Amino acid sequence: MDDTINFSHQPVMLDECIEGLNIDPSKIYVDGTTGGAGHSREILSRLITGRLICIDKDQDALSVAKSRLGDKPTFVNRDFKEISSILDELKIDRVDGILLDLGVSSYQLDSANRGFSYRFDGPLDMRMDQSQALTAADVVNNYSEHDLKMLLYKFGEESFAPAIARKIVETRKIKPITTTGQLRDIIISCMPKKLQGIGACKKTFQAIRIEVNHELVGLDHALADMINRLNSGGRLVVLTFHSLEDRIVKDVFKRESTDCLCDKSIPVCICGHKASIKLVNRKPTIASEAELLANSRSHSAKLRIIEKL
User: What global pTM score does this model have?
Assistant: First the structure.
């Protein structure tokens, strides 16, 4: 694979992420979503005797990361949600920093054969882990009209969900929907004339991608596991790219940075919950004006950072 051509990737808020990790050159760090290794490369450049664990469930991404980073990091072809078992297998009890970039990589979006993008015609796939069975074609051709509608509402916040779901079902009765181009045309046909640009597909493609990859399932538990595996003073840095995942991150961070979770009407705490983290940035950091102009992927990005107590 020619990684320069096939896996170009401009990491979002690179400086802010690295600063947020507060890297000690002798400590252990995890990049849970290695992707094109943009963030990993910067972390690695700051380590002297420390260790970097690079995790990604996309084998293509990990292959490129290996070619770019050499043999210094430890590479793990797994889902970051398995962080506890991954660290157990590596015989690592605690780490000093974890980075999660929850966005889809430029490579995945720009590779027609991966089926993530509505801008290119390709197979309706969308799997980040290509060893899994469920594909976007399975969702589009096998889910009921009701389930498709609810999926588009829930994960895409798509106001035209009923019309799109109905049109998908009508179309697949004639022949299966197997390409991103077919799905794109269906979506656009359901929109009012003034909204019939290619951008009209964004919410539906996002919803199906989230469903295929179970992106939100277990994210809250994974974040809690990561907090648990941090050393005191360790940082968890999370980049989100849509409101659904950001809400989960925000809620977990709020809960774990709060001493008492009891209903406010109860005069004395009975839950016994104690804060395990502090918020490094109380409001999410967003990209600078310069980055917004230079990197289109940064427009919806929010960066949240916590430190283990």
Answer: 0.91
